[in-house]
Amino acid sequence: MAASDEASRPFAGLSDVSISDDILVEGDISVPIGPSARRDDEFSTLDEPVRETILRDLRAVGKKFVHVLYPKRSTALLRDWDLWGPLLLCVTLALLLQGGAGDSDYQGGPQFAEVFVIIWFGSIIITLNSKLLGGTISFFQSLCVLGYCILPLTAAMAVCRIVLVAGSGAVSFAVRLAVVTASFGWSTFASTAFLADSQPANRKALVVYPVFLFYFVIGWMVLTFSPSQ
What burial letters (b/e) apply to 23-55, b meaning 16+ CB within 10 Å? Predict the structure, then answer.
């Protein structure tokens, strides 16, 4: 009988339990208004107009272009990486490579696809090489740095197209060779400046070598471009 009474009142013994005054059993669930909340509101883009979002992204891309033009040991491209700049440069370079002598039979040519394939697979190979050598860079960070550092070679391609309008003689080739060589060196120097801190100190030469080949292939495509007759 006693067992049945205890079963019918499972919480009967809790009436004798006392709660110490030192234990807080109530509180405020409202969101605090302080520096941290204001900081979150500043970086919130949910209520931001589309125009401001686009302008903010364009300013970020422009700042990265400036970093490439004036390279220094910085983690700006690694920390705030994006793929808008590389995409813009890839499309621009691929469009500038259209209309070459190799495209006379097949309009559109392979150059547009080659630029994207070289950049993607080149970035994968360089990233894998960096990882195997003990680097700390990710795939998208590598793609961001390598893509942004194509800026000098893209500018060289634009200059070469202008030079080729005047003719394709020995003087034209010498000018294009000088421009492409300077752009190739600038791209290689800028990329290694950004990637230097993420590589082991005693293996940087092994990391720079595939970067050298990466930009050499793109520079060769720019130098050997000739307009269709």
Answer: eeeeeeeeeeeeeeeeeeeeeeeeeeeeeeeee
Q: In angstroms, rounded to a whole number, what is the distance separating the alpha carbons of residues 59 and 88?
A: 14
C-alpha distances in angstroms, 120 versus 86, 102, 126, 127, 154? 11, 23, 10, 11, 17
Provide the CA 128 distance to its chain's centre, in angstroms: 16
Residues in the chain: 229
Q: Round to whole Å and give the CA distance between 197 and 21.
A: 56
Q: How far apart are CA 151 and CA 90, in angstroms?
A: 9
* Residue 120: partners with Cβ closer than 8 Å, 6 or more residues away: 143
**pTM to 2 decimals?**
0.71
Q: Which residue has the tokens 């392979």?
A: 110
Quote the pLDDT of residue 31: 46
User: Cα dist. 66→27, 119, 152 in Å?
Assistant: 51, 21, 11
The mean pLDDT value for 109-134 works out to 78
The string of pLDDT tens digits covering residues 171-193 is 889 999 999 999 999 999 888 88
pLDDT tens readout for residues 126-175: 888 888 887 777 778 888 888 888 999 999 999 999 998 887 788 889 99
Task: Go through 133-149 and write b for each residue having 16 or more CB atoms within 10 A of its CB, e for each that does not.
Answer: eebebeeebbbbbbbbb
Sign for the CA dihedral angle at 172, 175, 181, 184 comes to: negative
